[in-house]
TrEMBL record:
Its main location: membrane. Transmembrane segments: none annotated. The keyword Membrane applies. GO terms for cellular component: cell outer membrane. This is TonB-dependent receptor-like beta-barrel domain-containing protein.
Length: 850
């Protein structure tokens, strides 16, 4: 009997691979020179002397593979599903025959386990993407076991937020200065997301915790139009955060060889980071445009030209400025990406890829001009030379004279930062031998980084301005060794970066990667991997204020409160040594289980330390911090006719000496640490250490083309540091916030009329309306500092007089009235609203597909 099996192996690309062996059904001997054809394509090959064949480049899709040879009955294998970054294996037996017979057709079957997975990989496919209750592509991994969300920051397996890299079709979309996303795209353009939380291949650099590769839609051969809209305006005022989103896309076949895909997205919200209720000055407006043209003159050559443009802008809320928010900070980031991708297959056993890309992003922040605007109106920022130093005043609802919260003056900063990145990336995949596939690649990046950062002062203004052109070079080589019962990946990555400062030597990084897997039984797979993952420092950490050294004397008092740490262009790369062991398999029919264990040592993390210098001492970035992370992930997948779902549980420990690079700087600035002493390296639970976490995803299939999707999250609260009576603490993160939990639901109903498909969406976030604390809160003015016996002045027709403080309106503000005013002010500065999770929200949406 002939068995046709498929197995999977990961390699970085936007295509898949088919390989296999053809044997004589009677003798079980390999058959050489058999024709292998993928029907309805130009792709084909022939078996070698040992009956093996390899096709290293196949676009994602479902195919029929025809296997034919003189003297044998032709066989067609249907439903061969090729997916991105995966290999399909076929084992085909042919019956010998002396007469011509009709081809026999068989159905491709998947094995119980994917024996070639040497590291953890989570794949989010198009049908799942459509139902996840988020609209931004970068947030689609939030329900994966390796992810912890703290406020708006995404942390993968206990790593810092900046240790994750985001790609679109294998092209980085990260701002190399800040580590933020350079462009923001909607999920409407995404076909698939490949999420690698550890053990990723040698081709991936500038990432220590995770790689999120978002695969954009491939232009279709037929005309397709999609329109989608969503709003939560139906909710009562208290629950309506003003969210709305519109998406459109079109696939346009221009000729047989040229076709395109174009998409547009726009979104608005009155509160981009919802908490207990809508807060002022948190509006956000985004839009994005994406396009891709495919030119495929033959089965050997494909040229993709793609481009994206996005703009996001939002206002910020801060309790320090709650009585003067129109003079607080707003941000606007615009970005664009252009890519030319060329893929050439000289033969079925080789693939050459060349990518030319240009990424540009510009961030502007400061005080914006007041007034309303629509989604497409860019913020206009106030002239930085007109900004005023924040000062004490009586312009608060209680009329008392106070410096904090700020009620007069402006946010004292204006910034404009741009990054321009040109990249050339080449890769080759060569099937050298039946057991060896060689991958190699080279990348050169030329960066053009500019920054203008202005600080207003009550004495002297401060300007941090720089323009550098660093360069980065990387190369990798990896051997994928494929044996009958085992699979090994052995790779090495080389990274080189130069700071564009003559006195600073360039840095060279060597990072080995090794992974292996083998079948324990037909239904269970064991795998393990080890790797060194490195990340060059962010260029903000290298260049900020470096040009101002030695700092001028007038910065001595001003520096600690507003000016950030000084950059260090001689920073070394951060490094993670990671081990992972996994077991996955089928525990019963349609029920699969995966267990992943991981251990990470993170060294040379960037932190900040005090530097004694003349005329002014300062705080500088330095490689001084470390972390130790370990954990276990358990995932249970199940599928039936009416229900399919996934339950995951993660137990992890993330401990280290610093949660983020500026942590010690903030202790110096706000906790008034003794600058004469260096704080000792002490290990503690990091801010994003979530010991226990459970995710639940379920899909219920109902009659009449309707479905219910459920997303559940349950997690231990994050650690925090309570203030001591003196305002300082000796230990970090000794307490934990309350347990977190949330259930979201999405209900869909589809109606098909000819080629037209109408779908209605009902989305409820936080179905049970559960709120939980996200942080510790306390008043900006400690109650104990308001001592009635210290108030002995009267205000009468003076600059300190305010009618709001004159409670009996007799024209005189007494000490007793001042005490009442300060107590009310302290109460208003306790930011309890902003540290509690959002209430229930409901949205409705409609989608039209043609």
């Amino acid at each position: 009997m002939t068995y046709v099996l498929t197995a999977l192996v990961l390699f970085g690309s936007t295509s898949g691979k088919i390989q296999g062996v053809v044997t004589d059904e009677d003798t079980n001997e390999p058959i050489p020179y058999v024709n292998i054809t993928i029907l309805n394509t130009d792709i084909g090959t022939a078996t070698d002397n040992n009956g093996y064949f390899h096709i290293v480049y196949v676009l994602p899709g479902t195919y029929t593979v025809e296997v034919s040879c003189i003297g044998y009955q032709t066989k067609r294998i249907q439903d061969v599903v090729v997916e991105i970054d995966q290999t399909v294996r076929l084992s085909v037996g042919l019956f010998p025959t002396l007469i011509e017979m009709e081809p026999v057709t068989v159905i491709s079957e998947k094995p119980a386990v994917k024996k070639d997975m040497v590291s953890t990989t989570y794949i989010i496919r198009e049908d799942e993407i459509a139902t996840i209750p988020v609209d931004y592509s970068f947030a689609l991994v939030r329900f994966q076991p390796a992810v912890a969300i703290r406020d708006t920051a995404l942390h993968v397996r206990g790593g810092r937020e900046t240790e994750v890299t985001y790609l679109i079709d294998n092209i980085s979309i990260m701002d190399p200065q800040s580590g933020e996303l350079a462009i923001v795209l909607s999920k409407g353009i995404i076909d698939e997301i490949i999420f690698l939380p550890g053990g990723f291949d040698a081709e991936y650099g500038r990432a220590m915790s995770g790689v999120i590769n978002m695969i954009a839609a491939r232009p279709s051969e037929r005309l397709q139009i999609r329109a989608y809209g969503k709003t939560e305006a139906l909710m009562p005022y208290y629950y309506d955060f003003g969210y709305g989103n519109v998406q459109t896309s079109i696939h346009t076949p221009l000729t047989k060889q040229v076709r395109g895909f174009f998409a547009f997205d726009a979104a608005h919200t009155d509160d981009w980071n919802p908490k207990l209720y809508v807060l002022p000055h948190k509006q956000r407006d985004d839009y994005s445009i994406y396009g891709k043209l495919l030119f495929a003159p033959s089965g050997k050559l494909r040229i993709n030209v793609s481009g994206a443009q996005s703009r996001m802008q939002f206002d910020r809320y801060n309790t320090l400025w709650k009585f003067n928010l129109d003079h607080y900070r707003s941000d606007m980031r615009a970005g664009n990406l252009e890519v030319i991708n060329v893929k050439y297959t000289p033969s079925a056993r080789s693939l050459l890829t060349v990518d030319l890309s240009r990424l540009h992003t510009e961030l502007t922040f400061g005080v914006r001009e007041p007034g309303s605007h629509d989604v497409f109106d860019n913020f206009q920022f106030c002239d930085h030379l007109t900004l005023e130093w924040p000062r004490a005043s009586t312009r608060n609802p209680f009329g008392v004279y106070a410096r904090k919260p700020y009620s007069a003056g402006d946010y004292p900063e204006y910034g404009n930062k741009s990054s321009l990145v040109y990249k050339l990336n080449t890769q080759a995949i060569l099937q050298l031998h039946t057991y060896h596939e060689l991958q190699t690649g080279f990348e050169y990046a030329h960066l053009d980084l500019e920054n203008f950062h202005y600080f207003v002062s009550n004495t002297f203004d401060v300007i941090d301005s720089y323009h550098y052109k660093p360069r980065e070079v990387s190369a990798f080589v990896q051997d994928n060794i494929d044996f009958a019962g085992a699979f090994v990946k052995a790779g090495m990555r080389f990274d080189y970066y130069s700071s564009d400062i003559d006195s600073i030597d360039p840095k060279l990084i060597i990072a080995p990667r090794l992974g292996a897997s083998f079948l324990v039984t037909e239904k269970f797979l064991f795998r393990a991997n080890y790797g060194v993952f490195t990340q060059p420092p962010l260029y903000d950490h290298m260049y900020s204020f470096y040009n101002l050294l030695p700092l001028p004397p007038y910065l001595e008092e001003y520096y600690k409160e507003f000016v950030a740490p000084v950059g260090n262009p001689d920073l070394n790369p951060e490094k993670t040594s990671s081990f992972e062991i996994g077991l996955q398999g089928e525990v019963q029919e349609n029920v699969n289980m995966t267990v992943n264990t991981f251990y990470k040592d993170v060294t040379d993390l960037i932190g900040t330390r005090f530097v004694s210098a003349l005329p002014v001492s300062y705080i500088q970035y330095i490689n001084v911090e470390y972390a130790n992370i370990k954990g276990i992930e358990t995932i249970l997948d199940f599928e039936t006719t009416f229900f399919n779902g996934k339950v995951s549980y993660t137990l992890s420990w993330a401990r280290g000496s610093s949660s983020y690079a500026e942590e010690v700087y903030r202790q110096y600035a706000y906790d008034e640490l003794d600058t004469a002493a260096t704080p000792p390296l002490q290990e503690y639970d990091l801010d994003f250490d979530q010991r226990h976490r459970v995710f639940i995803q379920g899909a219920f299939n109902f009659p009449f083309d309707s479905q219910l999707f459920v997303f559940g999250y349950f997690g231990q609260g994050f650690p925090y540091t309570p203030p001591s009576p003196e305002g300082k603490t000796e230990e970090r993160n000794v307490l934990r916030l309350d347990f977190q939990r949330q259930i979201d639901c999405v209900f869909t109903k589809s109606l098909t009329i000819g080629n037209l498909v109408l779908t209605a969406y009902a989305e409820v976030i936080n179905v049970l309306d559960i709120r939980y604390p996200l942080g510790y809160h306390y008043p900006l003015i400690p109650y104990e500092d308001i001592k009635p016996w210290e108030f002995d002045t009267y205000s009468f027709q003076s600059s300190y007089y305010s009618p709001a403080a004159d409670l009996n309106h007799d024209g005189l503000i007494t000490p007793a009235e001042q005490v009442v005013g300060y107590r009310e002010l302290a109460l208003q500065t306790d930011d309890w609203v902003n540290v509690n999770s959002a209430p229930r929200r409901a949205r409705i949406g409609f989608e039209v597909k043609l």
